[in-house]
Automatic annotation (TrEMBL), chains A, B:
Heterotetramer of two alpha and two beta chains. GO terms for molecular function: L-glutamate N-acetyltransferase activity; L-glutamate N-acetyltransferase activity, acting on acetyl-L-ornithine as donor. The active site is at T182. Pfam families: ArgJ. Substrate binds at T148, K171, T182, E262, N381, S386. It comes from the Bacteria. The record marks A181, T182 as: Cleavage. This is Arginine biosynthesis bifunctional protein ArgJ. Catalyzes two activities which are involved in the cyclic version of arginine biosynthesis: the synthesis of N-acetylglutamate from glutamate and acetyl-CoA as the acetyl donor, and of ornithine by transacetylation between N(2)-acetylornithine and glutamate. Keywords: Acyltransferase, Amino-acid biosynthesis, Arginine biosynthesis, Autocatalytic cleavage, Cytoplasm, Multifunctional enzyme, Transferase. The keyword Transferase applies. InterPro entries: Arg_biosynth_ArgJ (IPR002813), ArgJ-like_dom_sf (IPR016117), ArgJ_beta_C (IPR042195).
Length: 386, 386
């Protein structure tokens, strides 16, 4: 179950002929209310795709009736014509739903720099409107239509004992970096919450989930995470419980993205403790997660802690070279900055690798999820224009 | 001709049994004077190898009689024992040359985290001392002994019409990043110059040469560039001419490193103009140079300017998305942030790729040299522990 798990939501996914090849490529998510509160988090890239520029305006109202998403074309670097296409897409959905265009967000993902075929999109919106459903299959259809190099649809849902539900889907399998990715995420809830409450739950959740997933250090022009609340359950949730549910859901979706990242053979967790503060812990973990020499060593199942120590050293965080401990899959390999134990004791043959780095300076801790740098990554990103 | 091109220098390269497999792995460069002025630039990595910690102390005196270099082991993350090995190495050379240990710098490159076999190194220093020569073959022997994954020795030399000469060698083929690389460079001159004059020539030269070479964003624990002056020509050079010669030599060596980088199939130059200032230009060029999606696209000979625009956008520099122009191999593909011209007109089949990015904001300009991200890079760095 995904975005249709909560009451008050319908979804669909259809073939609009935007992407190369067959397959669905346009999704619609509709909030049937009675409430239409919403919050959003967008890419920090200075080059923002047209749908991001449009949807940022929409979300400024704190109200959202529907979301149109497409795969196959990012509608980025497309100038005024691209913005008009995003606007026309929202107008088309609004006309069908009997609301204003300013109540419809638009998300795109795919190739940067070519115009989105407007007529295909508008026809696709009409087809998606006709195909709307409130069951699990409808949610899955929407989650499937936004896939690019993803190999599986990514959904999650949770029903709280207090009587409200939350569910959503995400896409993204590469170009995933600080402040999200080529990722589009739509999360729905039937809890009774206003826009500021949704925003207060969503921002910290994104910060410790999607923002801590760093596949290749590349930040997209299109990243969007939306949270919509219908209020259809009639239940006002406990703020803390709701925040925890949003965070858990985002972390679940982020782990699914990590597992499906382009060319991945290892799911790597970089866990940093003992940093001066949390920011420093994130900086160290992210630097190690992005280091090409670390990523290729782990692809080769080589517990090369020296490359990890070198990456810790060139991070912008405060570190004491004589206090660095590095543990890989439970085996302490570097203690106080020098070799400890037997490298061959660290078994990296499995798909999961846990790198623990203790800095011995303070209480700052953070975890970054990443993957190895494999032949598959090179193949996928050199053979395929995206 | 290389480090032995100027008068007053001898060099050698011998087999010391440090690296796995056969081949020379220890080099010695001696300045026979009459002067012994020197300057050095070292890695900014907070995790510094023992030879860097030692040599930084040596260079603080502004005087250098000799340099011992080894390949096969970085002597990094080796604690007090590693530092004692670096010190003992300098003492051994000093004893043979009749000078103080504080006049001998030590450089190492290779695997991080294992102790350098001290006896092999000390025996190697004795053998290298016995093998010293002042001809081109001796310089080449030294340049060859420091190679790791390098496939060719890298040398350059220049004789000035004013009567002084300069020459040097470098090694480094990966882990090359901001503030240099796993690179060791020794440059010699017979000009009459004191340590502050050498320092004043070397720092700006490194800043626009080795610091502008960014293969994989990884900064080494061992990077060292040394400049030694014997004064043997008896000529005091024009400061500007000498500075230009050092810069040209460093740029020549940096281009040789780019051409020999691990797994390289494309030599890529990222040229940024129109930035608010030079720092911003470097930031943009470096961000694009490091972007895995850009590097894999160029490996695939795909002029994917959209990925370049996205990387420009997430750099920390000031950019206006509506003013970005991107030209690849002379073909304008993006103008004012949107598609311009025909992608297929940009021919990327050759080994050289020039990416020109114009930001339209100011006069800041900079160039970064990099390479593509290929199967060869992944293969070399996953199959080989370094």
């Amino acid at each position: 179950m995904s975005v249709t798990a909560p009451q008050g939501f319908r979804a669909s996914g259809v073939v609009a002929g935007i992407r190369t090849g067959a397959g669905p490529d346009l999704a619609l998510v509709v909030n049937d209310g009675p409430r239409h509160a919403a919050a959003g988090v967008f890419t920090r890239n200075q080059v923002k795709a047209a749908p991001v520029l449009w949807s940022e305006q929409v979300l400024a109202t704190g109200k959202l009736r529907a979301v149109v998403l497409n795969a196959g074309n990012a509608n980025a670097c497309t100038g005024p014509e691209g913005f008009q296409t995003a606007h026309a897409t929202a107008e088309k959905a609004a006309e069908l739903l009997g609301c204003g265009a300013i109540e419809v967000a638009v998300c795109s993902t795919g190739l940067i720099g070519s115009q989105l075929p407007r007529e295909n999109v508008l026809d696709g919106v009409a087809a998606a409107h006709a195909a709307l459903g409130a069951d699990a299959a409808a949610g899955l259809a929407a989650a499937t239509a936004v896939m690019t190099t993803d190999t599986v649809a990514k959904e999650a849902a949770h029903t709280d004992v207090a009587g409200w539900s939350i569910g959503g889907f995400t896409k993204g399998a590469g170009m995933i970096a600080p402040s999200m990715a080529t990722m589009l995420t739509v999360i729905a809830t039937d809890a009774v919450l206003d826009a500021p409450a949704l925003d207060a739950a969503l921002r910290p959740a994104v910060r410790v989930s999607f923002d801590r997933l760093d596949i290749d250090g590349c930040m997209s022009t299109n990243d969007t995470v939306l949270l919509l609340a219908s209020g259809a359950s009639g239940v006002v949730p406990d703020a803390e419980a709701f925040g925890a549910a949003v965070t858990d859901l985002c972390k679940d979706l982020a782990r699914q993205m990590q597992a499906d990242a382009e060319g991945v053979t290892k799911r790597i967790t970089i866990n940093v403790t003992g940093a001066a503060d949390e920011d420093d812990a994130v900086t160290v973990a992210r630097t190690v997660a992005r280091d090409s020499l670390v990523k290729t060593a782990l692809f080769g199942s080589d517990p090369n802690w020296g490359r990890i120590a070198a990456a810790v050293g060139y991070s912008d965080a405060a570190v004491d070279p004589d206090r660095i401990d590095v543990t890989i899959n439970g085996v302490l390999l570097c203690q106080g900055g020098v070799a400890a134990g037997d490298r061959s004791a660290a078994d990296l043959k499995g798909a999961d690798v846990l790198v623990e780095i203790a800095l011995g300076l303070g209480d700052g801790a953070a975890e970054i999820l990443t993957t190895d740098l494999s032949h598959g990554y090179v193949e996928e990103n050199s053979a395929y224009s995206s």
